[in-house]
Amino acid sequence: MKLFNTLSGTLEPFSPDHDPVTMYVCGITPYAASHVGHAMSAVVFDVVRRYLEFKGYGVRHVQNFTDIDDKMIDAAARSGVSISDLAESNIRAFLEEMDALNVLRAHVYPRATGEIPRILEMIGGLVDDGYAYPADGDVYFRVRKDPDYGKLSHRTLDGMRAGARVEVNERKEDAMDFALWKGRKPGEPHWDSPWGSGRPGWHIECSAMSLAYLGETLDIHGGGQDLVFPHHENEVAQSESYTKKQPFARFWLHNGLLRLGDGKMSKSVGNIVSVREALERHSADALRLFFLSSHYRAPLSYTDDGVVAQERGAERLRVALETAGVDGDGEPLDPAPHRGRFLAAMDDDLNTPRAIAALFDLAHDINRCREQGRATSQGRETLRELAGVLGLTLKPPETGFAGAPFIDLLIETRKRLREAKQFDLADRIREELADLGIVLEDSAGGTTWKPKVS
To answer: Which of 8, 31, 221, 404 makes an SS bond possible with 71, Cβ 3.0 to 4.6 Å?
Structure first.
């Protein structure tokens, strides 16, 4: 199994240092409803975890919530609620939406506000060792103290300064120094510290949390590509400076960004489709197939039409799993070649588009063999197992349709008409049901029905 490591910029064989594998993934800032860009990242790292577990690894998965920062403060003030109530509401909704998407829950969901003692301990250590300095109630990290700064984003410090719009701050020794602790401002939440009351900076929370729950060196650190710089770069600098150990994370995995129109989907910009809206329009399987139809490191543009196309794909896989009738006694389907293609694709930096293609080819062969009267049970078992690696349930969508018994009666009537060679009347039943949005599918095992996918 090879994974693309952002740190080295190359594909590397995956060999963890820990059992279970330690995986930290940056989570949401819960100041507003989560959007489908968050859902895509969650699905990507859910598949990372599922595939590692499929290959026999244990995994300990930690994902944080940034429940205190500038955006949280501003959003709470605009809405007239407390920061904690705003965070609690959006975190609860996020977890419910991830459950609906069949995303496995992380083992730990630490929150920044719950980790203040660990954060203060880490900042204190960096100050004591000269990597950070207090300045009028703030505390800043000295980037020039770290000779490796820029190694994750593959930039030089001077190049960063030349291309950055850095806010002028006379309290900083260097314009690129970043805040570990922010001094108290009127109306903001605050905690006591040796440098004055205030609140943590954004970057330090993830270092403190990963250190507390996963140890000094991680096997995998994940997040979106927009976090490589400055967030993850700063995490590397402060973590390795504090522990005196390298690397902070052995593998850095970053998913591509989801776009809507011409720009990255962003709550702050407002060009979003919420997860709730997407789940109201589409099934979880269709959304997962849509996200995974592109390689996880590639950008992806979100469209309803694109997800609808994947709805049809999910239905093709569901049909192949149907167990109507008894397997024939002909030569059984051998799913091993399809399984081999799936595993080869996933071992190649989680190439889910190729893996999905292998699933569709297996589904095609299952349907063909069923029509030929051949045994397909092994093929169906393999399809269900491998679809599960991608988090697909392949359960029929809940239609809530009360006319199912009537449709079954019509199917039985149609069967008798065909046996009596009254094909015109039998075809009339199929056509009338189609007009009502019901599709009949005939096979050697009998006739099944399903709602038509728009």
So the answer is: 31
